[in-house]
Design a protein that fits this description.
Keywords: Oxidoreductase. By secondary structure, the chain is of the alpha/beta class. It is built from twelve helices and ten strands. Strand 1, helix 1 and strand 2 form a beta-alpha-beta unit.
């Protein structure tokens, strides 16, 4: 049974002071890792810097930086700088993001996302190991190296859900950080990726799997359930289809359809999970009183290397504090 726990937040959480305070508390409570979100609100890299300057032990992950929003060279420079600021505690999280963000925010065509992910991860890793830039668009230019000492030790964790992107995670990543994977599916899925990795490169370091449920603690279990349900339903009905397809393919197509039908105009705080879809909520979230959440998390401990709870956006600080206390690793 794992006693390794991590914390993640959603891209909709844009309260900088809350993110930093949650990271400081997570370190005090013994959490191993803290994932700083980035979507269409805050740039995560200065937030990682602020947290690094206020902590000494906890691992800090950019979860995730989109491969559409920065060049491989920028990502490599960012990783080296943050590894220095974090004194070796930094993890570069990369992902293919969604069509909505790539096209609607970064003004970039969402073409061949798995290929783009593979290309960027390979280019960033090459730069971090001291190799010159791999030029694709201006091949006649003189390729430059990173103007810093190589930093091959920076781990690259990959956010992936589809078959092509998870293959990239298994082949090129140091870790896999999926979101909204059913509890009863996670362990077997992780094992599949580990076997694939061993087949491709038997001598490669083990793949770290960092994943877990949406988590909410409240003295009123019904209120906690509503918050967890709103976050779950928002992801399944409003995030461009990627999470809905993934959860449906995990065996919950009818439940996903019911959630989408119940939320024609979803909101991250007002979306609902109808009774017919309750099995999905049970698989993707833990909620209730502190004792209930602590007990529910035991069912996740065999599923991942680092059981990473996902805090819904906008919840008040007392709920965040109570959730972190309930989900903290055993000391």
């Amino acid at each position: 049974m794992t006693s390794r726990r991590g914390v993640a937040l959603t891209p909709m959480e844009t309260r900088r002071e809350v993110i930093v305070a949650a990271a400081v508390l997570a370190e005090e409570l013994g959490y191993e890792s803290f994932a700083v979100p980035e979507g269409w609100g805050l740039d995560s890299t200065p937030i990682v810097t602020e947290i690094a300057l206020r902590t000494t032990r906890i691992q800090l992950t950019s979860a995730i930086l989109s491969v559409w929003g920065r060049t491989p060279a920028t990502l490599a420079m960012t990783a080296v700088a943050l590894q220095q600021v974090c004194a070796g505690r930094y993890v570069l999280g990369l992902g293919a993001s969604t069509r909505a963000l790539a096209e609607g925010f970064h003004d970039t065509p969402f073409a061949r996302p798995a290929g783009k992910l593979r290309e960027v991860v390979a280019q960033v890793r090459a730069l971090l190991t001291g190799q010159p830039a791999q030029l694709r668009h201006v091949p006649g230019a003189r390729p430059l190296r990173l103007g810093q000492l190589p930093a091959p030790e920076v781990p690259i964790w990959i956010a992936a859900l589809g078959p092509r992107t998870t293959r990239v995670a298994a082949e090129l990543g140091d870790g896999w950080i999926p979101a909204l994977v059913a509890r009863d599916r996670l362990a077997s899925w992780a094992s599949e990726l580990v076997r694939l990795r061993e087949t491709m490169d038997p001598g490669r370091k083990a793949l770290t799997v960092a994943a877990g449920p949406i988590a909410v603690v409240d003295e009123d279990p019904g209120a906690a359930r509503d918050v967890a349900a709103a976050c779950t339903a928002w992801y399944l009905s409003a995030m461009g289809g990627v999470y809905a397809r993934s959860v449906a393919e995990q065996g919950y197509a009818a439940e996903v359809s019911a959630i989408v039908a119940a939320n024609p105009r979803p909101s991250p705080r007002r979306a609902t999970v109808p009774p017919a879809a309750e099995p999905v909520l049970d698989q993707l979230a833990v909620y209730g009183t502190g004792a209930q959440v602590s007990d529910q998390l035991k069912r996740w401990d065999q599923a991942a290397d680092i059981v990473t709870i996902l805090l819904p956006p906008g919840i008040p600080w007392p709920s965040i504090e109570a959730t972190l206390l309930a989900a903290a690793p055993l000391r």
